[in-house]
Amino acid sequence: DETNNVSLEENRTQHTILLKRTFNDRWNGVLHSDIGHQDGTPGAVDDAEWYGITGLLFYTINDCWSAGVRW
Asked: Does residue 71 have a pLDDT over 70?
């Protein structure tokens, strides 16, 4: 993409892992993690690396509704 000075030939790799756990009939949780790497990041001296972990907790109100929080 010449407009943004980004080479389309650089390699970007990202892995995602999701773990789900049901605690009981009303509560369940999800742990979501990402890790990534990009070669030849424009404007940077080194390659780019990143990671992240997100936790989610859901409460089932009834058959149609549930509520959740993310941390």
From this structure: yes
**Residue type (1 letter), 49:** E
pTM higher than 0.90: no
| CA distances from residue 33 to 21, 36, 47, 48 in whole angstroms, order as listed | 15, 10, 20, 17
d(CA 21, CA 29): 5
Helix/strand number for the chain, H first, E second: 0, 4
- Token pair 């990041």 is found at 41
Residue 63 backbone class (left: φ over 0; alpha: ψ -120 to 50; beta: rest)? alpha
Residue 47 per-residue DSSP state:
-
